[in-house]
Amino acid sequence: MREFVHLLAPLQVALCFPPDLGLAVEIIEDGKTYFENARKKALSYARASDLLALADDSGLEVDALDGAPGVRSARYAPGHDADRVELLLSHLADVPWERRTARFRCVVVVAAPEGEVYSAEGVCEGLITFTLAGQGGFGYDPIFFLPEHDCTMAQLSQVEKNRVSHRARAIEAMIPTLRRLVSV
């Protein structure tokens, strides 16, 4: 929520989140694509709140693993983030540095209660490290190396991450649509 507050600040509109509205909508993310999952969440919350709703879905795509974990990034291994990172690194154990290319991908969807949907995508390219580095971020951030910054996503400040992340890029692409929707 903090990330969205920061990323959506340029809109200068009041934001509310499901807890603010007393909403506890159960949504199973069973889509085959990021768009399907984000659309399902946005439409569910738009209809439950009778407001515009924004939702996202994102994942890590590793080229040497044919795009895995992809849309199943949060469910790649049972347990916690550390378990998923450990499994991913074990699957890449024999893969050399130059073949460890990957990207974080995020799709954001804005839905109106009537069912209209708008989407945008953001991508952040990098490589998967051999070991964890950094204390910031979450999930796969400690093993996602950004060559242009010479560090992992987990080593970036929150301000810098909010400028270069896949989610930041997806929101940036969605801002013109959001401006149009909130000015109507």
Describe the structure.
This protein starts with a helix and ends with a helix. Strands 1-2-3-4-5 form a 5-stranded antiparallel sheet. It has 184 residues and is an alpha+beta fold. The radius of gyration is 17 Å and the shape is globular. Helix content is 33%, strand content 21%. β2 (101-111) and β3 (117-128) form a beta hairpin. The mean pLDDT is 95.
Please write out the topology:
Blueprint: H1 2-7, H2 18-21, H3 34-49, E1 53-62, H4 81-91, E2 101-111, E3 117-128, E4 144-146, E5 151-152, H5 158-164, H6 166-182
Antiparallel strand pairs: 1-2, 2-3, 3-4, 4-5
Helix pairs in contact: 5-6
**Largest sheet composition:** 5 strands, antiparallel
Enter the CATH topology name. Maf protein
Question: How big a fraction of the residues is strand?
Answer: 15-25%
Mean pLDDT: 95
The first-level CATH class is given as Alpha Beta
User: Which range best describes the helical content: under 10%, 10-25%, 25-40%, 40-55%, 55-70% or over 70%?
Assistant: 25-40%
User: What Rg, in angstroms, do the CA atoms define?
Assistant: 17 Å
Order the strands across the largest sheet as they lie in space: 1-2-3-4-5
